[in-house]
Structure formats: structure tokens, C-alpha cells
Amino acid sequence: MTALLRAENLVRRFGGVTAVDDVSFEVLKGEIFSLIGPNGAGKTTMFNLVSRVLPVTSGRILFDGQDITHVAPHRIAAIGMGRTFQNLAVFKHASVVDNLLVGRHSHMTTSLLGGLFFGPATRAAECAHRRRVEEIIDFLEIEHIRDMPVGALPYGLQKRVELGRALATEPKLLLLDEMVSGMNAEETEDIARFILDLKEDLEITVMMIEHDMGIVTDISDHIGVMNFGRRIAYGTPDEIRANPEVIEAYLGHKAPAAGEAR
């Protein structure tokens, strides 16, 4: 299996603080990769580097074989990377449909004149964008709220709308930043199901930051662990669960060796 995303020796400094310190990892095509670690470990900074929200201090980012280290942030959706954010970033006064249509912006090629006169080509493109949005609405099971203003929806549904908007960009790689934070058990199970369907049915590669270790170990193919800005572990869920450095990072002490008093 080939790598869709590869981070090579990434460093990000803020003044005298090194938030990401010589971190390398890869996300394989077709997998669910989780990036975990205690608060302040540098996970969201890493997401911001990968999605070009922040410039790297040094290192290199390769996406689908292309060096994107210096690609402008507004080009990221067009090259095949979608993202949700840790804090909700929806248009609360707009409807669900209109929020999802915003995600189609990188695929809209209508000229100014075409938009003004709304000719046949423009109408056909508009219909195609709306069909894609309706497919996403069906996929996320939000038909019953499609015309509602997003700000009037419960938190869990607002997060689902944000996921839909990211899907509307038609990403090869979807970055999910603490998607289930603040959700109840039923909402978390729904999101886990959608993420698995993204991988299996839509063939979208997923990279996620998550604190809910249940969902991480249940659905991830590989997990990378950060602490104090450095990568301290990488492996399958079983390997990560048994890794003493990971246990120490989360619990503050090393796991006892076999035969050692607990």
C-alpha cells in the first residue's frame, strides 16, 4: 500500500517554543490513521501544517506524490484535502444545503458572465453541484434537516453538517480534528459508522485527531502518538496499547515490566 500523505522531519517553532519537533509519519492510501497524544502534544499544530494553515519552519510535506510544503492554503481543497475543525466552523444562519454548497467552491468554474446570465452551461453546473450535495445529505442521513438553519440544530448535527461540507470538496484525504468531542455515546457511534463508510464505500483516506480512545482503537488501521511536540510511537492499535512510552505519556508513569510489582 502506498502513502497518500508523507510528513518528513517537520518542525514548527513559535518564537522560542518548538510545537512540532522533527516529526515524520505517513498515511497510507485507503486507511484510517489517528494522531493522538495528551493536551498540548502538538497534534492540532501538525494538522495546521499538513493543511497549510501554518507554514513549516523546516521539513517537507508530500501529498499524492506532490511536494505541497509551500502550497497556498486556499489551494488545499482543490488538490484533494478536506478538513473539519476542533471548534465548529459552520455558517449558522445559512441552511444545511447552503453550508454544503460552500464546500463545492473549489469545483465551481463558472465565469463571471456565465454567472450573470445563468446560461445553459451554468445551469447544468449548478444542477451537478446540487446533486452532489443531495448525495452527501443522503449519506449522512440528514434529509430531515436539509433546509434548516445550522445554528438551530443540536451540536451533534452541526458537526455532521461540517463533515458534509468537507465531503463536498471531494477529498482524497479527509482531516478530522476531534470529530466526536462533546458528543454523547449515540452520536459518537454514528460518527464512527460514517467514518468507516467513508473508507469502505467512498474510498476516502482519513486522518483524525481524537481523544476518545474507544473510537481510535476500534476503527484505526494505524496510530501515531505525539508528546511534547515529538512523535513517540507509531503502530497498530494493539501495538500502541502495549507501548510503555504511550502509557507513560497518558498516565504519567511507566508500565510495570512482566513480573514487576504493580
In short:
The chain has 262 residues and is of the alpha/beta class. The protein has helices spanning 43-50, 76-79, 96-102, 112-117, 120-139, 155-167, 185-200, 213-219, 237-241, 244-251, and strands at residues 3-14, 17-28, 32-36, 58-63, 66-67, 81-83, 173-177, 205-209, 222-227, 230-235.
Can you say what the CATH homologous superfamily of the largest domain is? P-loop containing nucleotide triphosphate hydrolases
Distance between the termini: 40 Å
Count the beta strands: 10
Q: Could you report the average pLDDT, rounded to the nearest whole number?
A: 87
Number of domains: 2
Strand residues, percent: 15-25%
- Helical content (DSSP H or I, runs of 4+): 25-40%
CATH class term of the largest domain: Alpha Beta
Widest beta sheet: strand line-up: 6-7-8-3-9-10
Which structural class matches the secondary elements? alpha/beta
Rg from alpha-carbon coordinates: 20 Å
What is the CATH architecture descriptor of the largest domain?
Answer: 3-Layer(aba) Sandwich
CATH fold-level assignment of the largest domain: Rossmann fold
Low-confidence stretches: 258-262
Largest pleated sheet? 6 strands, mixed
* N-to-C order of helices and strands: EEEHEEHEHHHHEHEHEEHH
Model description:
With 262 residues, this protein is of the alpha/beta class. It folds into two domains: 1-80 and 171-262, P-loop containing nucleotide triphosphate hydrolases (Rossmann fold, 3-Layer(aba) Sandwich); 91-168, no CATH class. It is built from ten helices and ten strands. It has helices spanning 43-50, 76-79, 96-102, 112-117, 120-139, 155-167, 185-200, 213-219, 237-241, 244-251, and strands at residues 3-14, 17-28, 32-36, 58-63, 66-67, 81-83, 173-177, 205-209, 222-227, 230-235. The strands form two sheets. A six-stranded mixed sheet has the order 6-7-8-3-9-10, sandwiched between helices. A hairpin with a 2-residue loop joins strand 1 (3-14) and strand 2 (17-28). Helix 3 runs parallel beside helix 6. The longest helix has 20 residues, at 120-139. Mean pLDDT is 87; it is low at 258-262.
